[in-house]
TrEMBL record:
<feature type="domain" description="Fructose-1-6-bisphosphatase class 1 C-terminal">
    <location>
        <begin position="187"/>
        <end position="320"/>
    </location>
</feature>
<dbReference type="InterPro" id="IPR000146">
    <property type="entry name" value="FBPase_class-1"/>
</dbReference>
<dbReference type="GO" id="GO:0005829">
    <property type="term" value="C:cytosol"/>
</dbReference>
<feature type="binding site">
    <location>
        <position position="103"/>
    </location>
    <ligand>
        <name>Mg(2+) 1</name>
    </ligand>
</feature>
<dbReference type="InterPro" id="IPR033391">
    <property type="entry name" value="FBPase_N"/>
</dbReference>
<feature type="binding site">
    <location>
        <position position="103"/>
    </location>
    <ligand>
        <name>Mg(2+) 2</name>
    </ligand>
</feature>
<feature type="binding site">
    <location>
        <position position="269"/>
    </location>
    <ligand>
        <name>Mg(2+) 2</name>
    </ligand>
</feature>
<dbReference type="GO" id="GO:0006000">
    <property type="term" value="P:fructose metabolic process"/>
</dbReference>
<dbReference type="GO" id="GO:0000287">
    <property type="term" value="F:magnesium ion binding"/>
</dbReference>
<dbReference type="GO" id="GO:0006094">
    <property type="term" value="P:gluconeogenesis"/>
</dbReference>
<feature type="domain" description="Fructose-1-6-bisphosphatase class I N-terminal">
    <location>
        <begin position="9"/>
        <end position="183"/>
    </location>
</feature>
<keyword id="KW-0479">Metal-binding</keyword>
<dbReference type="GO" id="GO:0006002">
    <property type="term" value="P:fructose 6-phosphate metabolic process"/>
</dbReference>
<feature type="binding site">
    <location>
        <position position="106"/>
    </location>
    <ligand>
        <name>Mg(2+) 2</name>
    </ligand>
</feature>
<comment type="subunit">
    <text>Homotetramer.</text>
</comment>
<keyword id="KW-0378">Hydrolase</keyword>
<dbReference type="InterPro" id="IPR044015">
    <property type="entry name" value="FBPase_C_dom"/>
</dbReference>
Length: 326
């Protein structure tokens, strides 16, 4: 089985980008170790802090964030990082070429119950000739990402990575190496499995309500077949399932906080996951437009997300279109 860096060299990926991905994996291996120790290392439970989005930080949110920040900023090819758990971007070498945004620990409500969590990352390039450090450097649409991926910390630790030429998966071996385990991952265009937090049903838009009602009606409804439902409450795990066997995942806009487009964050979750899904032949949308074409205007911007098997996402968009035109 091929080593991650050998695979990327073989694919003729830019050597500095390979170096950056290796650096990211160094941090993820450290996070994987801390997670594995769990209670033994005293890392479970909540901290006394709240992040800029008003969420209570888990101890492991903070640890994972610190590990990623330190390891990345120690490498002079990194100009700056932006994290879900940092109020503002943090800058390193002013000549650095890369920007990295990350959700250090996704699905962190699962930590204390020992269920899968993950790290999501997105790599951007500093626009040519820009020397001033500012948040604006990061505010690039998802189509500009050089690479994106996640590490799922589940029964095994798995990296799913795209550098803009398909999606490949690598499993962390006991030697500390990530080894190629799935090449050219492709999402089936059709699916009978959906993922949504059903407890928010009464807050959804009519398009989403009608769509889910028809899935639940199964073979007796207009879809004419039964659908299965999954909800891990960890986006990394949901996307991993979809990359592995297809499906649709959505965290849509809802009326609880109508001024926010959704729960998930564009720069740390929406864009990197959309790049992976599209590179595997799937589709990703806000329910109205392509996520990767959104011009961000704030680093912690939220976005509504619907992604997965292409034909099923198209069907969901039709329900939204139908209700928009009513
Ligand atoms: O608690 P809910 O409403 O089920 O939301 C679950 C969603 O929130 C998230 O946990 C948000 O990510 P964080 O844990 O990084 O805040 C997603 O991974 C997941 O899809
Ligand atoms: Mg998250
Ligand atoms: Mg998080």
């Amino acid at each position: 089985m091929q080593l991650l860096s050998n695979f990327l060299k073989h694919k003729k990926i830019d050597s500095e980008l390979i170096e950056l991905i290796d650096t990211l994996m160094l941090a993820c291996k450290e996070i994987a170790l801390q997670l594995r120790e769990g209670e033994l290392a005293g890392v479970l439970g909540v901290s006394d802090n709240t992040n800029i989005q008003g969420e209570t930080q888990k101890k492991l949110d903070i640890i994972a964030n610190e590990v990623l920040k330190k390891v990345l900023l120690d490498n002079p090819i990194v100009r700056g990082v932006a994290s879900e758990e940092e109020d503002f971007p943090v800058f390193g070498n002013s000549d650095g070429r890369f920007l990295v945004t990350f959700d250090p620990l996704d699905g962190s409500s699962n930590i204390d119950i020992n269920v899968s969590v993950g790290t999501i990352f997105s790599i951007l390039e500093v626009p040519a000739g820009v020397h001033e450090n500012s948040v604006d450097l990061f505010l690039q649409p998802g189509v500009q990402q050089l690479a994106a991926g996640y590490v799922l910390y589940g029964p095994s630790a798995v990296l799913s990575l795209t550098t803009g030429d398909g999606v490949n998966m690598f499993t962390l071996a006991h030697t500390g190496d990530f080894l190629l385990t799935h090449e050219d991952v492709t999402i089936p265009a059709d699916t009978s499995e959906f993922a949504i937090n059903m407890s928010n049903q009464r807050f959804w838009e009519p398009g989403m309500r009608n769509y889910i009602d028809d899935l639940l009606a199964g073979s007796e409804g207009s879809r004419g077949r039964n659908f299965n439902m999954r909800w891990v409450a960890s986006m990394v795990a949901e996307v991993h399932r979809i990359l592995t066997r297809g499906g649709i995942f959505t965290y849509p806009w809802d009326s609880r906080e109508p001024q926010k487009p959704g729960k998930l964050r564009l720069m740390y979750e929406g864009n990197p996951m959309s790049m992976l899904i599209e590179q595997a032949g799937g589709k990703s949308s806000t329910c109205y437009s392509r996520i990767m074409e959104i011009q961000p205007d704030a680093i912690h911007q939220r976005v509504s997300v619907a992604l997965g098997s292409r034909n099923e996402v198209d069907t969901l968009l039709e329900y939204h279109q139908a209700n928009k035109n009513d």
